[in-house]
Write a structure and sequence with these properties.
By secondary structure, this protein is of the alpha/beta class. It folds into 2 domains: 10-180, 3-Layer(aba) Sandwich (Rossmann fold); 184-374 and 398-453, Dihydrodipicolinate Reductase, domain 2 (2-Layer Sandwich). It has 14 helices and 14 strands. Strand 2, helix 4 (80-97) and strand 3 form a beta-alpha-beta unit.
């Protein structure tokens, strides 16, 4: 069994927080009907947010707040300024829904273990830098929480297998927080492909945006007073603080520099690959398996801090004969079959002729019969909460997330092996002919108590 430390017991935490009023413990702060309308307290799912930076502030927090059957109980971030911004964001929203115009009651903590120790939290939304995704998700699962996790969900193939296995063993609900399956363009394209409208599928083409490397302060300096930098690093190697390595202080719009450093992220190959290659897998009906072969080339950016891939070009072959071509370029996905093609360009989320294209314009409006393959079309947030209530499966669960992110990791492993073609066993998740490549299936050992053992 993989052990992960969560050194606060629930009872210890509640005593510290002054919440343990009875032997049964304290329940969640119940908001009034004027705040939640007709949604009864027993039907509300309580949630805590871990990581309250750019993605959380702009998308995850507002979208979950908008669900009447969700109650945000707590927020967590190692950056005190971001933490306070998130607390204010939650309390301002609930105040606006209340007949009094006031609300105070969103807990704010810097250490995610304190949040996970709370018995009044059903679910967590994890929106941290990538190097924290699996350690935090595993801790949440073992604390009995259902998990929505930002993509890419993993930094290595083997840790993804640990995560998927634990989700199944603990019977937790898990959702990869990628919105692409919820956008009508991709949803429509996949239903058309899966229902044979372009004939037998032959090839898929995906392109991520090019990585940008803007000017950022890259000299070592004391961390800002509001940032717990040691906890920000967590399982990553020790390194001196610099803004270029972390994020711009007091800014919730700038993209964090950590996204360009291999200690914390794999860059665009997984960042956008986790979106687009998920749609590729979905359309190919291979979302719970993987390719048989991969070959990729690429060039890493080289400076003192930023070292992710600045270009790449990957090829995959699946058991059904379909080939996937993945590279940097103009973000889109294209399915090519025996009878035609469908392409979705990523500059718009709406079904529009210059964004959703096909070899035959009839495909743009053709109806899919009631007896054909259909997938639910709902937001990723709604999908997660519905599954939490039903204890069912989300549309993009841990196994699907593992297989999608693995596609991106496989390309990078081929690059790290000098661009050689690698044969892959998707059932065993091993390279049967390359032990050197198998050694790359794990990320470097995690630092301190965060080891996945």
């Amino acid at each position: 069994m993989n052990k992960f430390p969560v050194p606060f017991s629930r009872r210890q935490f509640l005593k510290r927080a002054g919440l343990l009023a009875t032997a049964a413990g304290a329940g969640p702060l119940i908001l009034s009907r004027s705040t939640f309308g007709a949604t009864a307290p027993a039907n509300r799912i309580t949630m805590g947010f871990i990581g309250t930076g750019r993605q959380a502030a702009a998308a995850n927090i507002p979208q979950f707040l908008a669900l009447a059957d969700v109650q945000v109980v707590a927020v967590c971030d190692v950056d005190g300024w971001r933490l306070d911004q998130a607390r204010q964001q939650v309390e301002k929203y609930y105040a606006g829904k209340s007949h009094t115009g006031n609300f105070k009651g969103c807990a704010a903590v810097k250490d995610f273990r304190e949040l996970l120790a709370r018995p009044d939290i059903d679910t967590v939304m994890i929106s941290t830098p990538d190097h924290w995704h699996v350690p935090m998700a595993i801790a949440a699962i073992k604390a009995g929480k259902d998990v929505a996790l930002e993509k890419p969900i993993t930094r290595s193939i083997n840790e993804g297998r640990i995560l998927a296995r634990l989700v199944a063993e603990h019977r937790r609900v898990f959702r990869v927080d990628s919105e692409f399956r919820s956008l009508d363009t991709f949803h429509r394209a996949v239903e058309l492909v899966r229902n044979g409208r372009i004939g037998k599928l032959r090839s898929i083409y995906t392109e991520s945006p090019h990585e940008e490397f803007p000017n950022e302060p890259g000299e070592a300096a004391p961390p800002p007073s509001e940032l717990d930098y040691e906890l920000w690093l967590g399982p990553a190697p020790e390194a001196p603080y610099m803004q270029k390595r972390v994020h711009t202080p007091h800014n919730l719009k700038a993209r964090g520099g950590w996204m360009r450093n291999l200690d914390y992220s794999d860059g665009m190959i997984t960042n956008w690959g986790a979106h687009l290659n998920d749609i590729a897998q979905w359309g190919n009906n291979t979302e719970r398996t993987g390719p048989l072969e991969v070959k990729a080339s690429g060039q890493y950016h080289r400076d003192k801090v930023w070292n992710v891939l600045e270009s790449f070009n990957a090829w995959y072959r699946f058991a059904n004969g379909v080939e996937l071509f993945y590279k940097m370029g103009d973000p889109h996905i294209r399915f090519e079959g025996e009878k035609g093609w469908i392409q979705v360009n990523c500059s718009s989320n709406k079904l529009h002729p210059d964004k959703f294209q096909a070899s035959d314009s009839v495909l743009l409006t053709e109806k899919i019969g009631s007896e054909e393959i259909h997938f639910p079309l709902k937001t990723e947030k709604r999908d997660f909460i519905d599954a939490v209530k039903s204890r069912g499966q989300t549309l993009e669960d841990a196994e699907v997330g593992q297989r999608t992110t693995s596609l991106c990791h496989l390309a990078q492993l081929s690059i790290q092996r000098g661009g050689v073609k690698l044969r892959w066993d998707p059932d065993k998740e091993q390279f049967p002919e390359d032990e050197a490549a198998n050694k790359l299936l794990n990320r470097p050992p995690l630092r301190g108590p965060w080891r996945l053992e």
